[in-house]
Amino acid sequence: MNDTKPQRIDPGSLTGGIVLIVLGLLFLLDEFQIADFGDLMRRHWAMLIVLFGVAKMWRRETLWSGLWLVTVGTWLQLVTLRMYGLTYRNSWPLVLIALGAGIIVRTVVESMGRREERHDG
Fold first, then answer.
1. What is the pLDDT of residues 97-115, one digit of tens each?
2. pTM assigned to the model
3. DSSP run (H or E) holding 19
């Protein structure tokens, strides 16, 4: 009998592969002049960073780096589209605020996890 366990599918890798396939299809449609993907990329390139961040969030080991990518990607998208009057020049302090808040949240969450481990063990 075969005692090997079935391998679990890594959701992050699956998401990353799907993103690359979709990008390839969109670039192909642009090359054949079926769709104007170039304009879409100029306006929404930062969403690629958000998508890779979401893919990283699937794994516990890379959750925090995924959240950071989503945060930075969202900020870049808002600035690129100049939503709410945001520019690189006037909104960079938001990145510092997000970084500081992320460090605080991560510290509190990890501290609570260690406290629970001590009570369980």
1. 999 999 999 899 888 877 7
2. 0.70
3. helix 11-31
